[in-house]
Design goal:
- This protein has 436 residues and is mostly helical.
- It has one domain.
- Helix content is 86%, strand content 0%.
- The chain is built from 15 helices and no strands.
- It has helices at residues 3-77, 81-108, 110-116, 124-136, 138-153, 157-179, 185-204, 224-298, 301-328, 330-336, 343-356, 360-375, 379-392, 394-405, 407-432.
C-alpha cells in the first residue's frame, strides 16, 4: 500500500477509535461526576471501591474481542474465511461460559466481595449494590466488547464508533435521570452504566444486514488450539484491564491507611480521569490493530513499521496536550468532582493530578507497543509488557514509595513504573521485531 493511502487509513481508524474509546470510558466518568454531585464523597468512595470489578468484566470482553478479532483479521487477510467464522464462534462460546461465572458471582457472592474490598459500614450498602448490578449486566458488557472489535475488523470502524458514542451518551442521560429526578442513588448510576452496552449493541446490529458483514456463527466445534491462540492474543488486553482494577484495589488499601475515605475519594477522581486518558491511547492501539493484522497477514513488513511510527508520533503529540491540561487546570478539574467543597479532598486531588499524569507518554507507548505485538502474533512480549506494568512492578513500587513518601509516593509509583516498562518495551521491540 502506498504511504499516502496507508496514512489516510491510519487517520480514519485511529480517529474513529479514539472517539469511540473516549465514549466508552465516559461510562465510568459520568458515574463519577453524577455520583459525586448527587451523593457526595461517600458515594464517590463506594464507587471507587466497586469499580475494579468492572475492569475484570470489561477485560474479559476485550480479551475475547481483541484476541478473536486479531485472529479473524489475519485469517481474512490469508483468505481463510472458514477459519475466520470458526474464530467468531469460538469467541461467543467462551464468552457464554464466562458470563455464567460472573452472573453466579453477582447473585451469590456480592456481599462477600464487598467485605473483601474493605467497604466500611458507611459505604457498605452502596458498594454492594454497585457490585451486584454490574455483575448482573456482565453478559451485555462482554458481548458489546466482542461485537465492537469484530465489526471494526470487518471494515466498519465508523459503526463501532457510533455504537460506542451513542451508548455512552445514553449512559450520561440516564445517569442524570436516575440519580436526580428519580432519586435512585447509586442504583441509578449502575443501572445507567448497565443499559449503555445494550443500547450500543442495538446500533451494532445494523452491521449484520450490510454487505460488509463477513463473520457468522457456525455449528460449534471444540478446537482447543484455536481457542488457546485467541486467548493468548487477547491476554494483554485482559491484563491491562484487570491490572487497572487490581491496582485500584491495592491503591485503595494503601490510601485508606494514609488518608482514609477522603483520600480514596480523591484517588477516585484521579483514577477515573486516568481511565479516560488511557482510553485515548487504547483508541490509537485498537485503531492500528486491524491495519497491522491485515498487513501481517499479507506479509507487508514495511507497512507494519510505518503504522507503528505514525502511532508513536500521534501519542507524543496527544501526551503533550494532556499533561499541559492537568498541569495548568488541576484546580478546576478537581473542583468539578468536589460538590461538597472539601478542602482536604481538593488538595490531595490537585497534587495527584500533577504527579500521576507525568506517566502519560510512557503509558501510551506501552499500550500501543503491546497491541502492536499482539497484532503480529507475538503474544509473549505483549504479555511481558502488560504483566510488568500491571502487576510485577507497579504494586511493589506502590508499597515501597508510599512507605517512603506517603501519598506522593502513591502518585509517583505509576509514572515510575510506566517509565521502567517503556525502557523494557523498547528493548523487546528491537530484539523481537527486528524492524529497527
Amino acid at each position: 500500500m502506498k504511504s499516502k493511502e496507508l496514512f489516510k487509513e491510519f487517520i480514519q481508524y485511529v480517529t474513529l477509535n479514539i472517539f469511540g474509546m473516549i465514549g466508552l470510558s465516559c461510562y465510568i466518568l459520568a458515574d463519577t461526576f453524577f455520583v459525586s454531585d448527587g451523593l457526595g464523597s461517600t458515594g464517590l468512595t463506594a464507587l471507587n471501591l466497586a469499580i475494579p470489578i468492572y475492569s475484570f468484566i470489561h477485560g474479559s470482553g476485550l480479551m475475547l474481542g481483541m484476541g478473536g478479532a486479531t485472529k479473524y483479521a489475519i485469517f481474512r487477510g490469508q483468505k481463510e474465511n472458514q477459519n475466520a467464522n470458526r474464530t467468531f464462534t469460538n469467541v461467543i462460546c467462551v464468552a457464554a461460559v464466562l458470563a455464567v461465572l460472573f452472573l453466579f458471582t453477582g447473585v451469590f457472592l456480592s456481599e462477600k466481595m464487598t467485605s473483601v474490598l474493605r467497604a466500611d459500614s458507611e459505604v457498605f450498602d452502596m458498594t454492594k449494590t454497585y457490585l451486584q448490578v454490574i455483575l448482573l449486566f456482565s453478559p451485555a458488557f462482554m458481548m458489546n466488547d466482542i461485537l465492537i472489535c469484530f465489526v471494526r475488523n470487518d471494515g466498519n470502524p465508523k459503526l463501532s464508533m457510533t455504537a460506542l458514542l451513542i451508548g455512552s451518551l445514553s449512559n450520561i442521560i440516564l445517569d442524570y435521570i436516575f440519580i436526580f429526578p428519580l432519586k435512585m442513588g447509586i442504583l441509578g448510576a449502575v443501572l445507567a452504566t448497565g443499559l449503555a452496552p445494550i443500547i450500543s449493541m442495538c446500533i451494532l446490529a445494523k452491521h449484520r444486514y450490510t454487505k460488509q458483514n463477513n463473520f457468522h456463527l457456525m455449528k460449534p466445534e471444540f478446537t482447543p488450539g484455536l481457542t488457546i491462540n485467541i486467548i493468548s492474543l487477547g491476554i494483554p488486553s485482559l491484563i491491562t484491564e484487570v491490572a487497572s482494577g487490581i491496582v485500584m484495589i491495592v491503591f485503595n488499601f494503601i490510601i485508606l491507611r494514609l488518608q482514609g475515605n477522603i483520600g480514596v475519594a480523591a484517588y477516585g477522581i484521579v483514577a477515573n480521569l486516568s481511565l479516560v486518558v488511557t482510553s485515548i491511547y487504547t483508541g490509537i492501539a485498537q485503531g492500528i490493530q486491524p491495519i497491522t493484522s491485515r498487513a501481517y497477514g499479507y506479509g507487508k513488513k514495511d507497512d507494519i513499521k510505518k503504522i507503528l511510527k505514525y502511532a508513536i508520533i500521534t501519542l507524543l503529540l496527544i501526551s503533550a496536550c494532556i499533561y499541559s491540561m492537568f498541569l495548568l487546570c488541576s484546580d478546576p478539574i478537581a473542583g468539578a468532582f468536589n460538590s461538597e467543597h472539601n478542602e482536604e479532598l481538593r488538595q490531595i486531588a490537585i497534587t495527584g493530578l500533577k504527579l500521576y499524569f507525568t506517566a502519560v507518554p510512557f503509558a501510551g507507548f506501552n499500550i500501543i507497543l503491546s497491541t502492536h505485538f499482539t497484532s503480529t502474533e507475538k503474544a509473549l512480549p505483549a504479555q511481558a509488557i502488560s504483566l510488568s506494568r500491571g502487576f510485577f512492578i507497579v504494586i511493589p513500587m506502590a508499597f515501597f514509595l508510599s512507605y517512603i513518601w506517603g501519598m506522593a509516593g502513591v502518585w509517583l509509583s505509576y509514572p515510575i513504573t510506566e517509565g521502567m516498562v517503556c525502557i523494557m518495551g523498547m528493548a523487546l521491540y528491537k530484539r523481537t521485531c527486528k524492524l529497527v
